[in-house]
Design goal:
magnesium; 19% strand; binds guanosine-5'-triphosphate; cell projection; six-stranded mixed sheet; Rossmann fold; alpha/beta
Length: 236
C-alpha cells in the first residue's frame, strides 16, 4: 500500500484526519481485521459533492464543506456475511490546479466514483474527460468505475437527465447511480454495491485458473462491454 504526502491544510481536512483514526474501530468499540482492503477514489469537477459523499457515507452527516486541498483520506469498514472489507477512500480535489497530480492519487485504486452534479451539465461533460484519463492508466478489469450523478435533491435545477447518465454509462460499460449527499439518497447503496462486486470478483479469481485471469494481461477498453457492465447499481 502506498501513501502519498497529503497537502492537509484546512479545517475540513483536519476533521477528516481525525475521522480516519476513528474508523479503524467499529461503533461498538471492537477492532476488526479486514479480509480485503480496497482503495476507492472519488474523481470529478470542483464542487460536485465528492467530499460530501464521502462524509455522508463515513459519518452519515452533511455539512457545508470547503474545497479539498490536494486529496483527503477516509477509511470505512464494511462487515459482509463472508468478509470484512476496508475501504480506503481517496477524495481528490476537483480544482483545475490539482488536475496534473490527480493520477498520483488514483494509482492502485480498485474502484472509482466518477462524480458529476446533475444540476451542472459541464460537470457531466468533464466526467467524460476523466474517463479518458482512467482509460490511459488502468488495465482491463483492474478498476470498477461508477458514474455518479450527485445532488438529486436539486430537482428543479436538473440539467442532466437520468436517461443521459444511464445511457452514457451503458455505452461505456460503466455502473451508474444517482445520489444526494444532502438528502442521503443512495449514498450507502453505491458503496455497498462496490463492496459486493469486488468481493464477487475475489471469489471468481479464487475459482479461475491462472491462465484465464484476463485482468493481468489485457488492456482495458472501457467502451466495450465487460464484466463490470452495469445495468445500474442502484435504483435512481
Ligand atoms: N444540494 C446539494 N448540495 C450538495 C450536495 N452535495 C454537496 N453539495 C454542496 O456542494 C458544494 C460542494 O461540495 P463538496 O463536497 O465540497 O464538493 P467537492 O466535489 O468535494 O469539491 P472540491 O473539493 O472543490 O473538489 C457544497 O456547498 C456542498 O454543500 C447534494 O447532494 N445536494
Amino acid at each position: 500500500m502506498e501513501f502519498l504526502p497529503l497537502k492537509i491544510a484546512d479545517r475540513k481536512d483536519m476533521a477528516q484526519r481525525k475521522m480516519w483514526k476513528e474508523m479503524t474501530v467499529t461503533s461498538d468499540g471492537h477492532h476488526l481485521n479486514p479480509t480485503y482492503v480496497y482503495k476507492v477514489v472519488l474523481l470529478g469537477s470542483m464542487a460536485v459533492g465528492k467530499s460530501s459523499l464521502a462524509f455522508r457515507y463515513v459519518k452519515n452527516s452533511f455539512r457545508e464543506t470547503m474545497p479539498t486541498v490536494g486529496c483527503s483520506f477516509f477509511k470505512q469498514m464494511i462487515r459482509l456475511e463472508t468478509a470484512n472489507i476496508m475501504f480506503e477512500i481517496w477524495d481528490t480535489a476537483g480544482q483545475e490546479k490539482y488536475h496534473s497530480v490527480c493520477h498520483l492519487y488514483y494509482r492502485g485504486a480498485r474502484a472509482a466514483l466518477l462524480v458529476y452534479d446533475i444540476s451542472r451539465k459541464e460537470t457531466f461533460n468533464r466526467a467524460k474527460l476523466w474517463l479518458r484519463e482512467l482509460e490511459k492508466d488502468f488495465l482491463h478489469d483492474e478498476i470498477m468505475i461508477i458514474l455518479v450523478g450527485n445532488k438529486t435533491d436539486l430537482v428543479t435545477e436538473r440539467e442532466v437527465t437520468s436517461e443521459e447518465g444511464k445511457e452514457f454509462a451503458r455505452s461505456k460499460g460503466l455502473l451508474h447511480a444517482e445520489t444526494s449527499a444532502k438528502s442521503n439518497h443512495q449514498v450507502t447503496d453505491v458503496f455497498m454495491a462496490i463492496a459486493q462486486k469486488l468481493l464477487q470478483q475475489e471469489q471468481q479469481k479464487e475459482t479461475m485458473p491462472v491462465q484465464s485471469q484476463s485482468w493481468k494481461k489485457s488492456h482495458v477498453d472501457l467502451r466495450a462491454p465487460n464484466s463490470n457492465q452495469i445495468k445500474k447499481c442502484c435504483k435512481s
